[in-house]
Fold each of these.
Amino acid sequence: MSVRSEKVDAPTATMASLDLSAQSTATALDHSDHVTATITAAQQADSALAESNTLSVSNPDHPITRNISVTIKATLGDLCLRKNKASWAPTATALKNILQKKKFTSLGGSAEGTGDLRSIVLHDMTATHISSNFPFPVGANLSAVDANTYSITGEAFGFIAPSNSSTNVSTRLQADDTSLAYEFARKFPGYTAENLTEKGVHEVPARRFCLIASDHPLVSAIQENSSKLQLGDVSMMPEGLVKIGTELYQTVMPIVTQQVASQIRVRDLSTAKVTISPSESTSWSEARNELVTQAKEALRSELETSLAASTGEGEIANMRNEFAKREALIESNLDNTIHTFHTTLAVTYNFLSK
């Protein structure tokens, strides 16, 4: 199997061998060398039982593009009391409608969505518009975007929108190197780190062996590391599957899964969302209290000036009552004013598997 961690440039990228260390595979027991040729033949065979044989991966030069409008509207009162009010989180059905490719299933125009939202190869995500009328800076965290923008609190965000701001200047939020992902998809179509233990794997616990599809990355890893493994517990089945002993499977599969997960970068957007929070405060309640304190300080300064010019006790009492009402009104206005955060995202991506 071919995986490597260093950055490579497509289309000349080639995959280095996946290294299964002798220490990790010492428990593979008494296996013989005669199966290497059998595995090679299995990989070249057409197997009707190999689940990924009919899968075709999209062209890396023609990725999918989506423009996604994100709007979050809420009052400070709501944001302090209800955490979900600070998030834009479409339902699973809505996300499929937004991100999946449409595949026509009949001449009448019926279509269904294709593409595994858990295995998205992200080319680029750019914010083409950002606006916020919150009275303080707001940080946004987005699925598939690394949080690399830091505020005074030390918190990291995908980006920060200044208070009462609006811009149409495009800001690139994320750009991934996709070369390894496409090369992996070409060699092992349909496989991801998430489905390696399910796709093309048929365990038979009672007999202590597993049947593995001949195009599975695990089979390639065993073949390429045959000098480090003793392969007596592997054999070719008539259906084109490879029979592997349970102990060998349990030893090698975690290593393969870990290397695929760490080196083949895909994004899980099956629960994609955008969440905002005050970038210069630790919570919505703290940000709200700071606004209330600032507004009341100005009001109290005005009250002290008015009291200094008053003469009678009755006038002073009336003045204090009036200012108390104004303080309550300030809090009510701050708590009930609707604020809006909006961004438009241009997303370019593909699917590693259907």
Amino acid sequence: MTIKRLALAVIVLIGMAGLGNNVAHAASLCVHPAGAGRCFTSIQAAVNAANASDLISIRAGIYVEQITILRKNLTLVGQSGAVIQAPADMEDTLSSLTGFEGRPIILVSDADVTIRGLRIDGANSAESNPFLEGIAFINAGGEIRDNLVENIGFGEPRLPIIDGGPSYQGDAIFVVNFAATPRTITIAENRVVNYNNNGILVDAEANPNNPAIANLTAHVVDNTVIGLGPNNVIDQWGIFLGGFGFADPQFSITGTLRGNRIHDQVTIAPHPLPGVGIVTFNNYNVEIVDNEIENVNIGLSANQASSVQITDNKISGPRQEVTGSIGLLVSGRDIGITENRFNKLEIGILLLVEDPDFGSAVNTALDDNQFEDLAVDVLTGSISLNVATARTTRIWPKLPHH
């Protein structure tokens, strides 16, 4: 090495050493039920002590607590056997953020957070914990991956009546962004079972001060969502991805719905509304690809979609004798429907035309779809049962700007 290069190397090393005194390095914190290894005994205590970008390792054990993460980017990783269980008496931690009641087991707001490898158990405690939720991201982004979320509800189908009307509650994973800051969320490889209402709900609400700003990109991939099966009490949804109040569909919500497995969203008479595998609303440039949807009243409802590709999905109808089963219900424009398989349904694809709520399916391309054991392969017309309206009107009825 020449003297010039040696001198340059020394200068660079000195400069890096000087920078090291001013750069905060991410730390690793641990949680153990008994405090072994100088770990925290509660996850919330570790969250409170952590600095931005720290990793919190949660060791095997049952942690009966609510966790709130506000304005702090963190990573929470559960080791095998780490369980977070809903307390018998939970606090309403949503009202101060959203203006409406909610009791999430894990709440994240105004941050980018990763939650991975945890078992989230609601303990079927919605009777004593109204508006129980599993994991809630409010105006937040990050990653929710490889978790088991279970028992988020009453333990059986239940539709409580509050103030004279039905109250849908019991969402396992839900994400909503109504702030101006754009967020990206990845929800992947999770297993959701035994929930009351929605398995995974992702919602973008326009900022009223500027409804022309796109604010949420969502990738919902490789999740398994299993409903409660046939019931005449509540119409469950597996996955919801929607946007509301935007100036144009391209400013709404975008991303991917890929490789998800959704089963057993079935309602039977006399319940008036159907269980649905996947519901999308006001999506822009979303790929809905390679999803398996089985034993449902309606497989996929894609309303007011724009530049959406629906490809290589497998949709099978209810195993029970029910009426009105539909594989795919579509409205919007510039939609590609390709190489999907439909089985054991009354209607394979329903293309809406002049529907009073959702308009028409305009410039829709159908190519190489397969139909087996159907009464009607493809049908056009309006739908008297307003599948999306009946439910989207109650998803976020009390957001501050509504």
Amino acid sequence: MLAPPEVAFARHDGVHLAYQVAGTGPPDIVFVAGAMSVSLAWDEALSSRGLRRLASFARLVTFDQRGMGLSDRVAPDATLSMDDLVADLAAVVEASGCGEPVLFGTHNGGAVASLYASRYPVRQLVLCNTWARLAAADDYEFGFPERVLDRMQQRYETEWGKGRIIADYGDRGSHSDSKRIELGATHNNQHGPLFGLNRSFDVRAVLPRIEVPTLVIHTAENFMVPPAFGRYVAESIPGARLVLLPGSDHAFLRTNADAVIDEVEHFVTGRLTAFSDRLRMAMVFTDIVDSTPLAAELGDDAWNALIEEHNVRMLCLVEEMGGHGIKSTGDGYLAAFGEAPAAVRCARSALEAMSDLGIRLRAGVHLGEASRMGNRDVSGLAVHFAQRLCARAEGGQVLVSEDVRSACDGVDPGITFVGRGKAQLKGIPGEWELFEAALPA
């Protein structure tokens, strides 16, 4: 899975709730993230890795709470209730086809998940870095004083978009793009109803009524929501187990995902499995022949327009044939496919698709393992192998490796291969069999 899962929408009382589904089950895990944009998290290199790991051992459903991400906004003067958020969660569970899901709640999503678990069938409940009530009370002395909550609400309403608030929830060193993250997560006018709800809800009375197996996880040095809040939740739910993990980050997906998800996977499945972001993919690397003299001849404006048209055509062609457009390389293109025949056919079609632009392409295709770099890029020897094959090709030629030829053998009889002998590829040890791929005229 190179790209984020497709976005669909559940509806409740006219509110559109953006949700995404990844992986296969059972079990089904519904990630109730609360006041964060999970659709944005799928586009981030750090947080998306944690989501992909959850999807590696379960069918994962994520969604944007109303007011966040791609879901509908809340009217600034609206009175938002926890019942609204629980009903929204129920709509997502139904729309995504979950039966009795595992609920994984974090931030204010922990309270939403707890309320849901007290009303609807749930297989298991996981709560991470969450709370039952924020404000202090006579029987809740570790809660925040009202003056602290007032200051927090003021900061949300006046400082959102400057990158300072989200940095408080996680490792400051990992939030170089925190301004974009804040502005992409929600609008400034949403913080009145959203934080107003978060500071006022109190689900303490509900916790003793939860009867499903429950795991409570909290980062031990969490200063935004100290571990006393998580300890209270665990002690209030019958049979719940509390795990305190090293770390200070509240937003665990970006910096502490592995430690948290280790606990989640073992709780949900009873085991731990190795997780890797490495995938076996067919990499296609194309290159414009004699691009430097052509650029000099055309001039910057015409060359840039030509490259833009080339990139648009490449992306359309790659997606039409079931691949993932990775990136433009300046005078070429890199794409990834799950199957070698589709990659070869795309490479051949690309050479023909650019002929009316007055440019000639060459291409290399290799099948091997590559590592994800976020959701939009890949790296690894397979990428370099395809690039080296492309560099050896002549204009109008598609060179492929033995791995590609073998993967196509007997699968797509329309593709033929002609041996082009052995060659050494720059930076890759050994000699390698090369083949030219062709399609019927």
Amino acid sequence: MPWKIVEKMDRPNLFGLLDTWILCAIFLVLASLYGFSFERGNFNTNVGAGVNGLASGEAGVSTLIKAQNTAVYLLSVACIFPYIKLMSRQLRQNVWIFSVLGWTILSVLWSDIPQTSAVNALRMTIDLMLVLYLFDRFSANDIQKLIMLVGCVAAAGSIVMVFVFPQYGLQSRGLYALGAWEGIFGHKNICGQAMILLLLPAFFVRLHGTYARILRGGYIATVLVILIMTRSAGAWISSIFCLGFVALSKLATRMPRKDATAVVVAIAGAAVASGAAIAANFATVMYALGKDPTMTGRTKIWAALLHSILKRPLCGYGFMAFWQPQLKGESANFALHLNLPGYNSADSAIIELALELGIVGLLLYGAVFLGAVRDAFYCLGHGASSAALWYMSILVFVMTSNIVAGALMRPSDLACILPFVAYVGLRREAKRLRQIEPAMVLARLPAAAAVLSY
């Protein structure tokens, strides 16, 4: 018997369920990258940012972050375990999407730090099992409401931190971006990227009642203000593309399907041409944004890391195992070459993935992403639902946010988990449309026969 997609009904008591609030807490911590803590001075830019926070923070702070991380995974396992049989079926149906997770687990065999790779592969596995759990427990529309709930808490908390505790809510690392909003997050860039992801479902979620729509308008306005005040150029650029897609999708839904598909293809071509023009005039564009064309030295870092990639091009150095403390391993050669002791980020998700999982891992993730793009175009040509359009907006986020900074496969990161929600969701939507298409054709046959007989 073929596997059928059955869309779950929205829950009228969604916000009265315990697991809704448990998931809200889990995703809030994941949005922050590992957890929250209060630090001042030079530390406040690394709060909750994972490796930097754990390495440079005080013992008490490190313990607090580790405790939050542990609690998140214990809660995640508690949510997942009762539905493990149902999720195993979903896993088989999406085996290609999760092939990159399998490669991540295999990387333990050749990792420079096997224990680190094993622990982080386990965390990544739990993160992605949460994706399947969401589809087992909630409708696509309720998942969007859940993400907006996380956004409401994050936005309210950030405003409180900025105005009540500015020593924590405003970035204060020297003169660079002094006073930029970072809210409850550990850095302005983390805040900016998280706010984009938490904003997107507000444009596609189905709400009932005037009061709910007014609240949505207030939510969108609040998150946009926070996003602007982060002064994160990467987040601004990504948000421009994402909001452009939102506007385009709203226009396309009012057009005949064939016309909408043609418009989307034309605009996609224009976007590619614009990207090529930006690349050709990159320095001018960066100066116009008030930024350094080297992106604060990132281009030099990328050039140096390419040499490291070429030493192990196929398999990389193991999941989360390239950056090592105390000048060990290949990362020590990079640090000594650029005189950057303690540096631990490629500032490019693509380069980071190539360092950890090699070209094979990069190709696997690329194939998963392109498969989602294919499903997106199929949905556009056959009446995409509002949920499908939300998934597509996440694809735009992935494309625009992971060139400079970002991470494609990073445990405890909502920006890594939600793209897999989009990949699985688009595959489900495409399958659902393929299943109902024959029924729609059969439904048209009597009408067509009546016209011919007449």
